[in-house]
Amino acid sequence: MMYNTKSIKPHRIMDKVRHAILIDDDEATNVYHDIIVQESDVVEEYQIFDSALTALEFLKNREKAPDFILLDINMPRMTGWEFLEEYKKLDQAANPPKVIMLTTSLGAFDKKQAEDNPIVSGFRQKPLTLEMLEEIAASIHE
Length: 142
Prior knowledge:
The chain has one domain (2-8, 15-140): Response regulator (Rossmann fold, 3-Layer(aba) Sandwich). It has helices at 27-40, 52-60, 80-87, 108-116, 130-140, and strands at residues 2-7, 17-23, 43-49, 68-71, 98-103, 120-125. It is an alpha/beta fold and 142 residues long. The longest helix has 14 residues, at 27-40. The termini are far apart. A 6-stranded mixed sheet has the order 1-3-2-4-5-6, with helices on both faces. 36% of the residues lie in helices and 25% in strands.
């Protein structure tokens, strides 16, 4: 199920990110992240999904990849790692977005797996903060 779709009007000096996807199975986390993205005003359009499978289906029907994906690791039915394996098969993978693993899992195994995955650009601990989102958005324009 897609949790939220928003288009936000630009008014900040910082260059805005065109499109972002957030994927997390936890409803409270999604509500909080929705508030952070709205307050940041650095993303023009975004979707929040509570399922990696639903997000993957959504992305299969888009021609352009989002600028970045914030991806939880531990989710039912399809983990963040499984999502990445399937995402690599899409046409969008030729111009992949920055993928930031946003997780409560700070285990060495997950960190190493993120470092070894060429599509993963970062590994951050939840919750998403305003500063973290602004750093991610700024890195898109580097």
